[in-house]
Amino acid sequence: MSAQWEKKDYQVSTDPQRLELDIIHGYLTTSSWAEGIDRETVALSVANSLCFGLYHQARQIGFARMVTDFATFGYLCDVFVLPAHQGAGLGRFLVECTVNHPRLQRLRRQLLLTSTAPWLYQKVGYEPVNRQDYAWTFVRKDIYNNDVYNNDVCNTGTMS
Q: Which parts of the chain are coiled coil (predicted)?
């Protein structure tokens, strides 16, 4: 079941049929956090997440994705508003929709990793984690630009 919110001429919807993969991939492949990501990986991530599309006059202009178990934890990622529509409070509207989604109300914790627009996330209740040895991450920084990414190690069960 999809959810929908409206603000003036803008809509946020979780209807996966409305998502425009070309727009999502086009933005992400040039973003600082997913530079070079291929379309297939974007499609797979979209298919396995709760996605929020931001629309103006039925055209997609923004996106956010929540990776979640719908019980205790959610990870907000890939949040963007196309540059032509930035500065009008639409990023906040989009993130507020992710926080207020009915299926996410039982989550104890939502996580966001970002180096951009911290003020936006603070306005909707996110807080920085500045405790030593509390938040940890494992990152393959060049995964979209190396040969390891193209080898299907997990499915074959072999490593070289």
A: none
